[in-house]
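Input sequence (190 aa), recorded before submission:
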Amino acid sequence: MCGRYWIDGEEESEIQKSLDKFRGHLEKKTEVAPGSRAQIILQNEEGIFTTQSAIWGFSHFDPNKKSVIFNTRSETARKKQMFKNAVEKSRCLIPISGFFEWTDLKQKYRFTSQENSIMYVAGIYQMDRFSMLTTVANSSMKPIHNRIPLILETDDLEDWLTNDKLTEELLKKIPLNLNKDVVGQMGLFI
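Predicted structure, token format:
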């Protein structure tokens, strides 16, 4: 699961190396939380990969709940009515520099790529909202949490955005191991 991430905003040249037809701009965000605006990468009508500002989290199906649904399980995304159409027709990438996760004891960890300054999380969007896909934790995440964002490798980015035939295969990927650092303890009186 992922409930906070950040983007340094200086990775545009790296994105252009990963996606040939990328034309967009990233803004620095020190900590993105569910319900806030952030940038996603999607393919526009001209076939260009570009950034778009969107709200992290789908509106809840229960109108009495004010929370948003910001993570979507990759294993069930194609089966759930709320996500099915977005998985089929509205896939996006969420560019992140890293993300945070907390243990049950509220110990905060920062996760980053071992290879690149940017990671691409598989996402889905509906209008001006997006949700991050998660999968079963890899070995670097298992001691902290049982879920991890579905981080795609560079070779999979264009396929995720454009190739409907590979969607199911990409939903089953387990991300590579990540760097992990302790960054703090959550206070008791927050």
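Checked by second reader. The longest helix spans residues 81-89.
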